[in-house]
Every structure is written in structure tokens, then in C-alpha cells.
Amino acid sequence: MPALACSWDVATRREQGWGLQRGGRWGRSQLSPCAPAPIFALLQALSSVDSVMMMYPFFYRPQDLRLEEGWHLFPLEQYFQQIAAQTSQWRLSDLNRDFTTCPTYPADVIVPAAVSDDTLRRAARFRQGGRFPVLSYYHPRNGTVLLRSSQPLTGPNRKRCPEDEVLLGTVLDEGERGFIIDTRSAQAAKQARMTGGGTEPKSSYPQWKRLHRPLERGRPLQESFIKLVEACNDASLSMDRWLSRLESCRWLSHVKAALSTACLAAQCLDREEASVLVHGAEGTDTTLLVTALAQVILDPGCRTVVGFQGLLEREWIEAGHPFHLRCARSAYSHARLKQEAPLFLLFLDCVWQLSRQFPFSLEFGESLLLTLFDNAYASDYGTFLCNNEKERCLCKVKENTHSLWAWLNQPEEKKKYLNPLYSHNPLVIWPSVEPQSIQLWQGLFFRWIRPSQYLDEARAEMQRLVEGNEAPAKESAGSRLSRSLSDPAARTENER
């Protein structure tokens, strides 16, 4: 993650005309990329810190926050207790407390109660990086579960692991079926066997049916992001040329594919009443994209400000998404590192699509998503530092940096991110994934190109009008507006 080596805070830098430049580095826009060589070299040197512990969050000390605030807002134990109140089939295991079983998992994981820790350790050796299947979400309506893992290491000889088979077999009762959603193409999964990876053989996992839903990651996704940013920054484009470049970058296709796959997972859980295991190769990128999006679709709790933060903590930060590698630079970087990929940005874009199609169902607005994007690439806070919990423990991130959640949850700060039209919706929100329903996130991709003054004024006026009404009137107006403004296809799905 790029360091903020300067001593003044983010807000001050922005007020003084600074912004994210090449590689996510801070610098005045007039200095980059056309700055005099010595100045530009100095900016690069100041922002290219090799040691995580020398990055700006380790030196940022706001007066109104304490270091310990925010780091323990979303303990997995609390999330597990919600599940334990509904079923006894799952338990909280600390088998990874020393991070030796899986270096990219947190210390505690939720696993089947009938499976011993010794069996889990053996199953972990059969999964890439030790990422054995763990519970991601328990669907309270029917008891189905969403699991995530990495690919099995079957190799060209189709090796088996009895412990892994027992683990997945325990999840399903006799006669039940489950689905494995592989975020690779069938061809890519087949090729993975040549390098030791592979898929779960049907003969060894008879109750599980594999579905391939390929999602791009790595270089293809990064190149798509770069092309989109370059097109958005080109003010000389004609209409035809703009539409051509927008199509050729394929970013909206990635958004559609991610939403479609998340809807498939949610549909298996909610409508087919079948449990789901999601994995790709490593299980740290597209896997988390799908499991997190599926929960936003299914669970109204994940659509609140606090619930969404808890989701990010469980499904992205603690689950081992390598933020340090994926967000090392920006679309303007000269260095095209193969480990870069804006997966987290793609997730935020998909959530924005949901908020646009269901403008009353998410408690937070676009401003929160933009703030999260900014902090993933350059932050005063340590929340998105490092690649996993093991690294954060070694660097003592929680002891020496402030939590982003502590800042966001301050009453006056939190108020900025609330959706004034929010009305609790207990239903599953089924988004339309038709091409006509997927739109470019202008609030992000055009934010530095055109002023947001009028949109900000409109939001402020909306807030004033809503606060001026009594609560019952607000809910009644919200229901009427929801019926008239929601996406027709999405509304039809929601009413089924």
C-alpha cells in the first residue's frame, strides 16, 4: 500500500490541491506527471516506503481518537454467537491461533462442530495456501450456509484427501445437495491440475455439483481499470469514440459478471435451499468478491453502515485479501505489477450498482464507498495495511495505528455517510444484471474531472427535507418513491 509520508493529514492535502497521482502517491496535480524531474523524484521517494511500519498510519495521531478504539468492534465471536443462537452444527475454532495451519486466515474460524481440529489441519494441507473450507454466512431462513476456500491440490494424478471429503460431506445432511461455484473457467481449472491445483472430483464429492463462473483477476482486470481511467480522462473524445472506448475497456462487463455470480450464489442459498462453496485458485480475490456481494444481497444487516463495516472486516480484511499487493499502485502507475488487481474497487462498484437500483435499502450512500476506496489506496489509518492478519500481528498494526472504523463511527462523521432515504428492507434484494441496468459509476470515475458541487447541494437539500418530515411521513414517502423509482426488473424480482 502506498505510504503517506508527509506529516499533514489527508483533508489538508486535498484542500491545498493535492491528490493521488502516479502509483497512488500524493502530489500536486500540476507537478505530476509534468513536474521537474528532481521534484517528481522526491515525491516518489517520499511515498515509496518498503517497510510497512514506516508508513504514515504509524505516525498519524488525531487528537480525538485513542489507539485502541475501533479495532475490536467486530469480533468473530460476536458474529458466531448470532449463528450459535440458531444452530449447534457450527463451532468457533482457534486452531489457527499461531497462523501455522493457514497463514492467510485469521486466528479463529467457524467450522462444522462435528469435525475435529486434527481433521481440519489435514484438510488444510490439501487446499492451496492452507485455505480449507470455512463458514462465511449462515442463512437464517433455511439453515443453508455459504463457505469459502481455495482450490484443492488434486494435481494431474487427481489426488484425494479423505479429511477434506469428510469436511464437505459433514456440511450436508443425507439427501441434501450443494453447489461449488468455481470462479475460474472450466479450461483454467483443468490447466491448474498441471501445476498441482484442480477441482473437486464428482466421484469423491457426490453431493456437490460444480458450476464454473469465470471472473477476471490480476492483469486483465488491472488493464481494464487502466483503460477506463484513461478514457474518462480524455476530454477530447467524441460520443462515438467515448462509447467505443468504454466498451473496449470491458469494466462494466466485469461488474455484470461479478453481480451475476453473486446472484447465483444467493439464489442457490435462498431459492434452491442448497449450501454453496465458493473458490477460485488462491481464494483471496474473486472468492471474497462473490461471498461478500452475496451477503449484501441476502442480508439486510449487511446493508447498514455498521453491518457493512463488519462485512468488510470479516470477508475482506480478516479473510486475507492482499490489500498491500493489490492496491500497491494506481491506474497511473508506470510499473505494471502482475499482482495488482482492483478487486476491492470492483466490489465497491457492485455495491454502488445495488444502491442505485435499490435507493432505499442501503443505510449508507455513495460517499462511504468513495471513502473506502480512498483509504484502500492511501490512508491515515491502519485498517487496510498488510495482506493478512498474520502480517498485521507481526507489524503490530492494531497496537500502533488508528482504526478507520473508529473515525467513521464518530457521530458527526457517520452522519455524512448516511442515506437520507433509507428505510429498512428485510427482503432479499435481487438486482437486475441486464446490460441496460449496469451503469458507469460517475461519482468515482469522474470525481476529479467535473465538480460535484451541485450533487453535494442536492444531497444536502434532500437531507434537510427528510429531517424536516416526521418519521411516519418519511416512511410513507419512501415506500411510494421506492415503487416509482426502483429498477423495474429489480422490483419485479423483489416482489416475487
Automatic annotation (TrEMBL):
GO terms for biological process: negative regulation of autophagy; phosphatidylinositol dephosphorylation. Residues 70-445 form the Myotubularin phosphatase domain. It comes from the Eukaryota. GO terms for cellular component: cytoplasm. GO terms for molecular function: protein phosphatase binding. InterPro entries: Myotubularin, Myotubularin-like_Pase_dom, Prot-tyrosine_phosphatase-like. Belongs to the protein-tyrosine phosphatase family. Non-receptor class myotubularin subfamily. This is Myotubularin phosphatase domain-containing protein. It comes from Anser cygnoides.
